[in-house]
Amino acid sequence: LILIAILIISFYLLLSVATRGGMLVFFTSTFFYLLVLITSVRSKKVRILLAIVSLSIMSFAAIQLFGFIIEETYLGQRVEMAQDKESTRTMLIKEGIRIGMNNFILGVGGGNFSKVPRRFERGSFSHCSYTEAFANYGSPGLLLLLYLYYDFLLFILKKLKRSSGTNRTLLYLILVFFISFLLYNIFYVTYLAIVFSGLFFGVQTYMAR
């Protein structure tokens, strides 16, 4: 019941802020979270019940989302705009790659992507962790960020091999969170936000116990 409440609240919060990337990550992570929970239960009856509840939640969310888009809310308008022309986020990502390629070794300096002369939308970050790191810190910065994520992924997979039962289920849930986190890095510069950075390092600290 707590999980269902969290999912419903999260869905409406994402809908209210009209984040397309967040909604994509929400549906992806929710599907895999529910899949892990269903397969971890031994009782066949409980598994069937969980499957029915999960299907109901996903169907409800999909119907609600489709209905809101048809009603032309801000989220619907953003989806339609992305279909009609190249989105702002895509342009910013391309700009981040271009600046990174022009400053391949050292980048333009931490936080300077928003300040350097640009062809498109000055004064904002690139909305992508990978291109932001590449533009600001060059290839060494991007490689360090990717290595940090790779090392943590490897750490989870090693723990999974040595675990069983409840611990194994928990590790699978953490793995789903981490993959969702990597996906969301495409849509937002997570290392610039205290909330996302704190969440990531909090999970790392828990895993290291």
Beta-strand residue fraction? under 5%
Shape: flat
Order of helices and strands: HHHHHHHH
Report the structural category: mainly alpha
Mean residue pLDDT: 79
Radius of gyration from the alpha-carbon trace, in angstroms: 20 Å
The helix count comes to 8
C-alpha end-to-end distance: 29 Å
Largest sheet: none
Low-confidence stretches: none
For the secondary structure, the number of strands is: 0
Helix content: over 70%
Structure in words:
- This protein is 76% helix and 0% strand.
- It is built from eight helices and no strands.
- Helix 2 (20-40) runs antiparallel to helix 3 (44-70).
- The model has no long low-confidence stretch (mean pLDDT 79).
Would you spell out the secondary-structure blueprint of this structure?
Blueprint: H1 2-17, H2 20-40, H3 44-70, H4 74-84, H5 88-102, H6 129-162, H7 165-184, H8 194-207
What keyword list fits this structure?
mainly alpha; 209 residues; 0% strand; single chain
Quick take:
The protein has 209 residues and is mainly α. It is built from 8 helices and no strands. The protein has helices at residues 2-17, 20-40, 44-70, 74-84, 88-102, 129-162, 165-184, 194-207.
